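Pipeline run #58 for the internal structure catalog. This entry was flagged by the ingest filter as a single-chain record with no existing model, so it goes straight to prediction. Upstream metadata was stripped on purpose; only the residue string is passed forward. Reviewer on rotation: M.T. Logging verbosity set to normal.
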Amino acid sequence: MNVRKLAAAVLVCVFAYCTGQAAASERLVKQPDKSVGFHQHKEDKEICAIVSGTGSYLYEDGECPAKSSNVFVTHKDMYHGLKNLSTDTPLVYFAVPAKPNLTEAGKAAEGNRIK
């Protein structure tokens, strides 16, 4: 595991929370061969930071690999999911729901994001 990349992923979640962009963070574990079904959030964005394991992040137009230190941002109303591709190792991640009404610091951060 690349500790620097993992630290950066966690900092993204902490920044989102501290600037008022996120409500709370929750550490989640998806067991081998299990998934978070395809779903959407009607009221918020979601930041997902992978801590350990390997999986696949599903989104409206396809899927991409999900591994330690990856961070995914799901926009409001976007269908998405996450599945653990391992047969013996849990997929550990943080899911941070972002608030729909950003603080001024949050608005500034959103305006400066990399596109």
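catalog note: The radius of gyration is 14 Å.
catalog note: Helices lie at 3-18, 104-111.
status: ready for reviewer M.T.
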